[in-house]
Amino acid sequence: xxxxxxxxxxxxxxxxxxxxxxxxxxxxDYEKISVPYSQEKGRGKGFAFVDLRSHSDVRNxxxxxxxVDIRGRVVFIREKREVGDKGRGRGRYESPRRSDRxxxxxxxxxxxxxxxxxxxxxxxxSRGRR
Length: 130
What we know:
Largest sheet: 5 strands, antiparallel
Number of strands: 7
Strand content: 15-25%
Strand order of the largest sheet: 2-5-1-7-6
Low-confidence stretches: none
Structural class: alpha+beta
Distance between the termini: 78 Å
Helix content: 25-40%
């Protein structure tokens, strides 16, 4: 279990002092709070990391700080994931059906072009009208 928490959905205007105030209000000890800032935009990136002193503080924070409001936004809190732990992010999910798609490329059953079907339908309709 990591002793670092990830705080997401944070207001872009939130500062380290805003996050620290919430942890102090819930009587949770922390060692360090970092709110990454975008140099291009001159504001926060919308998330923060909080290093806690112990694993019991992590459990307490996860239990007590549900639906916490920081600077007018309800944030969510979870343990920070390690670098190699991709989790369920924006990456592509490889289902068993997709992973064997390359095996079906040479399958010649079914399918076809819609334009061909439309062409046949339009010819059959025009023959019936003449």
